[in-house]
Amino acid sequence: MNLFWNRLVCGGVIVGVISILGCSSTSGGSFIDPRISELADGRNVNGNDPACTSRQLVSTGGAFPRDAQTLVVRWTGYANFELVYNGQIILLDAYFDRGEMYPSLGFTAADVRRADVILLGHGHVDHMSDAASVGARTGAVVVGAPVTTGKLATQSLDVKQVRTVTGRGGELLQFKGFTVDPILGRHGEPPHDVVDAFEHALKSTTPPLTPAQAKERDEIRARGTSDKRVVSEGTIAYLITLDNGFRILFRDSGGAITDYEKAAMARVGRVDLGLIAVSAAFLNTLTVQRSLEQMRTYRPDVFMPAHHDGPFNNLWRPTEPLFQAMKEENPKMVTVSRVYREPVCFNTENNIQRSISGASH
């Protein structure tokens, strides 16, 4: 086995052949960018960069990647991600202090000491509850839809840090090393007959909250909004384009694809990385259907799921049926799912835009 394939397989990307070839598990190890066709100088493929092996968030004091072109992605539960690139920290959603009923993320909102931008997909509590406190502590710019930033206005956050976007076009945001194009999406609307039946069954197996737990839950919920406008006006997808052309699509709810999203993707074609919420419809047939719709729209080279870990009833949303259906339609697409805070590193110089540009010359 040559050096590249040994690193590729043992890096944990081609999960299906790990057991065949005898590679050890890479929990906590480096992720190898699956689109690298040459070793070049070995960046991002040899696992020697601490930023690509450590589970400590950079926003809580962890190391920045050694190479400015390395993108490090860490999932931190629900639809929260930390993106680190070229000295910048981008937080996608901000829901960290979830309460004692939930699995620990390994850090608290108070531990987040550095961030440059916080992009809020929508204003439900499980997406924005810690945005104001983290934004105030870090000085980060906080971006969201009107219904989201309206809720932020009731909290302790300097209004000068807030950017309100509608996602209806013409709102490109410029930051150091990247741009953000907000796109109006739609919140998930799982069928009531399915959801109600599952929730009724789950209640019979979930211990009731103690008074202290109920108080904690209510305090957390007060930092989000339940405004009905979230569904059609308050859910924003973000197209993040790094300065070298690498594209990331973040969508924190599994709702139907909108005409705004279709128009945006007709313009750019494809994305290198999709960070996309799994539909909350419980049934695999329904979640697969939505995920295929997302895949066909965004056409990501690499897909990472979001919002699939369990609430306090411990029912996680399985990702394997989604991955299987996606790979049957697009065998070349790579699916990646890691545990809380495990780093996923990309050599962003290797991206779709550069490949297309190179092929045209």
Structure description:
By secondary structure, the chain is α/β, with parallel strands linked by helices. The protein has a single domain, classed as Metallo-beta-lactamase, Chain A (4-Layer Sandwich), CATH 3.60.15. It is built from eleven helices and 14 strands. Strands 6-5-4-3-2-1-14 form a seven-stranded mixed sheet. Helix 10 (about 320-330) links the parallel strand 12 (about 300-305) and strand 13 (about 335). Helix 9 packs across helix 10. It is globular and about 60 Å long. The two termini are about 35 Å apart.
Spell out the key features of this protein.
361 residues; alpha/beta; Metallo-beta-lactamase, Chain A; 7-stranded mixed sheet; globular
List the helices and strands and how they pair.
Blueprint: H1 3-10, H2 18-21, E1 70-75, E2 81-85, E3 88-92, E4 117-119, H3 125-128, H4 131-138, E5 141-144, H5 146-152, E6 162-164, E7 173-175, E8 178-184, H6 192-203, H7 211-221, E9 236-242, E10 247-251, H8 259-268, E11 271-277, H9 284-298, E12 300-306, H10 320-329, E13 334-335, E14 343-347, H11 352-360
Kindly provide the name of the CATH class. Alpha Beta
CATH superfamily heading:
Ribonuclease Z/Hydroxyacylglutathione hydrolase-like
**Main β-sheet, spatial strand arrangement:** 6-5-4-3-2-1-14
User: What low-confidence regions span 5 or more consecutive residues with pLDDT below 50?
Assistant: 1-29, 37-46
The major beta sheet can be summarized as: 7 strands, mixed
Shape: globular
Helix content: 25-40%
Number of domains: 1
Quick summary of this structure?
This protein has 361 residues and is of the alpha/beta class.
